[in-house]
Amino acid sequence: MKLAVQNLFRHRTRSLLTMLGIGAAVAVLFSVLSFNRGFEAGLERELKGTGLHFMVVPSGCAHEVAALVLHGAVIPKFLEAGVIDDVNRAEGVSLATPILVAQMPNPQGGRIDLIYGVETAMLPDIKPDWEITGAYPAAANELLLGYNVALHNGITPGDGIRYPGVEGVFTVTGIVAQTGSQDDAFIYMDIREAQAILQHPGGATAVGVKLTDPVRMQEVIEGLESRVPGIQIVTMGQVMNSVSTVAASARSLSLAVALVALIIGTVGVMNAILMAVFERTQEIGMMRAIGASRWDIFRIILKETALLTMVGGIAGILIAAAGSTLIEGFVRRVMPYMPTGEMLRFEPLLAMGCVLFAMTIGLLAGFYPAWKASRINPIEAIKG
Question: Residue ranges of the MacB-like periplasmic core domain (predicted)?
Fold first, then answer.
């Protein structure tokens, strides 16, 4: 081991660059795997946080439905009149709340407001994880504001908001604590008020449904689909699959890039060790001449490879941990959807697995140089 360490220090620059190559590959690999785990956990947490079992929406794209369920995307379709009554009458439904999501001009504030119309009394059931400063709306002319809306416009509980064509003033009763999601950008109001302002009486973009017995979900869904035309029913599990599919291509590409980088780093290790072997041919021949076995030579070269990849792998983990905030910020800008919460977290077992994987690949790369060194003929090597 001492000889292996000394040999690496003979060419510090070459060894350092080889380690950095391995480190960069391991950093990318660890970041991608850590992100995948955090993404799945965050998505599952958000779906559980909806407090609903499935959504009834107009027939259309599953990705639009996923966007509506998870962060209130505006869908330019409305459920037909009577759908809400049909859902409420279905056996096994304990909660069915219409939801109307739309954009609305606010000339007073010089902005476009995102309106989330809902039966406000059911908000604690739909969003059980929210923390509220103030109180939930209790009357038709009361509003609940998302964190960003309140922050950017300097609105506090008790302030009033006016909308064109609407008599009276809406009173802000509460502010939702920051969630880090699209929930922060919405203004929540009674759905009947939203329908009146948007001139869509009885209109809704979705119906959120909670069941008395989730075990009977498939039975309830089949019953609704057979009785009510023009609807699409999406469970929270299907939403997870839909969003995961959208993000899968980006994650797969990142993982492929990480593996390619690791292969390139491995080739760099093989090249560095082979160069070291060729430069030390006479030295290895002298070691053989004074009694070193082929196995001794093989072990020395293999230990050099193991040291390079191990130190490079550890450096890569440290780089990923130090730059996790920057990496996550970049991913959030390019991904089509990201759950709230921290995606990149340091997990010791995952870090250890990445380092061991890099060492395994590195040892395989070092096998040929080690074998080549062990086959050097001592007499011919000393002669030069």
Answer: 15-225
Q: 231 pairs with which residues across the strands?
A: 58
Domain that holds residue 34: 2-45+247-383
Q: Where are the beta strands (DSSP E) in the chain?
A: 54-58, 93-106, 111-118, 132-134, 142-145, 160-161, 170-176, 186-190, 206-211, 231-235
Q: Based on the domain organization, do 132 and 212 belong to the same domain?
A: yes
Pair (155, 90) in one structural domain: yes
**pTM of the entire predicted model:** 0.56
* Count of structural domains, the chain: 2
- The neighbour count for residue 54, using CB atoms within 10 Å, is 23
Q: What is the mean pLDDT of each run of 10 residues along the chain (384 residues)?
A: 74 81 85 78 63 73 49 58 79 82 72 82 80 90 89 88 77 88 83 80 78 79 81 69 61 75 81 82 83 86 86 89 78 62 79 88 85 82 69
Judgement on whether residues 293 and 177 belong to the same structural domain of the protein = no
Q: Indicate whether 275 and 169 sit together in one domain.
A: no
Q: Could you give the C-alpha distances from 113 to 168, 272, 328, in angstroms and in order?
A: 18, 60, 28
Tell me the two tokens of residue 167.
Answer: 């008599």
Token pair recorded at residue 25: 């590959």
Going by C-beta distance under 8 Å and a sequence separation of 6 or more, which residues neighbour residue 92? 211, 212, 213, 216, 219, 220
